[in-house]
Design brief:
By secondary structure, the protein is of the alpha+beta class. It is globular, with a radius of gyration of 15 Å. The protein has a two-stranded antiparallel ribbon. The chain has a domain of 49 residues.
Length: 71
Amino acid sequence: MAPTQTYRDGRKADEDGWSFPISHLGRVASFEEISRDRLPDTQVLQWLGDLSDFCAKYHTARLFYSHPPGG
């Protein structure tokens, strides 16, 4: 989902706030979860490439959580 106005309980939270929903790969949404679930590098690279291509094609922004795995 692209950036959107912020809503709470079905009402706009304020006039200036924006929300940036996190893009996900199936049930995972962070590199830590990707590592934990041992997703193949090829699948992750394909997803990131597809996400990037989508943004370029439709001139939009998407957010993904990129904090590296903890330890």
